[in-house]
Amino acid sequence: MSLPRHVVNLLLGALPDSRLSRLKARLLRLAGVEVGPGAHVCSGVKIMTSGEVSIGANSWVGHACLLTGGRARISIGSNVDIGPRVTIVTGSHEISRESDRAAGTGISRDISIGDGTWIGACSTILGGAHLGPRCIVAAGSVVKGTWPDESVLGGVPARPLRLRAAEPGSDSSTSQNLD
Predict the structure, then answer these.
(1) pLDDT tens figures, 27-74
(2) Measuring CA to CA, which of 12, 13, 99, 154 is 20 to 30 A from 40?
(3) Neighbours of 124 (CB within 10 A)
């Protein structure tokens, strides 16, 4: 993590939780984070990665979220809602059989979160996860892998619960079961 990101993390922690959005966006931009217009980042958010990070227009990143990992890219689309205490982590380790430690060589994989996606509180998004547009992730879920548009996911590890109705003007409670 770079010194500017470290300083911005400290400053974000000192600002009011859900106010001063434009100031927070400017600070994040100074630290090399792409922040779209109208994006709202709550104060407890920490970005502790050396990889590229982008937050799309009109997205919300909730209280105490953590974006961390290695050099991989984290791409958050536009109109995304990320609940409090969500962890987005690009990094992990290969399993080692040759040393005394199970965690071997560090690896880092990109993460992309499609436009209009909603991620529930306390979820974890793991390296290599790709969520299509307008997905819903239930609170407390652990997401890995690639998921198509409009998927509704939940559990540990996350599994498909249903596919949202994709027709314009359809009732939001209408869904197709994937079980």
Answers:
(1) 899 889 999 999 999 878 999 999 999 999 999 999 999 999 989 999
(2) 154
(3) 21
Q: Which residue has the tokens 């869904």?
A: 175
Q: Which residue has 């003007």 as its token pair?
A: 169
d(CA 121, CA 150): 19
Cite the beta strand spans of 18-59 per DSSP E. 34-35, 40-41, 46-48, 53-55
Q: How confident is the model at residue 113 (pLDDT cuts 50, 70, 90)?
A: very high
Strand-pair category, 151-154 with 159-164: antiparallel
- Joined together, the tokens standing for residue 36 give 């779209």
Round to the nearest angstrom and report the end-to-end CA distance of the chain: 41
> What does the pLDDT look like over 161-171, one tens digit per residue?
976 665 445 44
Task: Count Cβ atoms within 10 A of the Cβ of residue 123 and give its class: 0-12 exposed, 13-18 middle, 19 or more buried.
Answer: buried
Q: What is the pTM of this model?
A: 0.85
**Per-residue burial over 73-96, b = 16 or more CB atoms within 10 Å of its CB, e = otherwise:** bbbbbbbbbbbbbbbbbbbbeeee
Domains along the sequence of the chain with CATH: 3-168 (2.160.10.10)
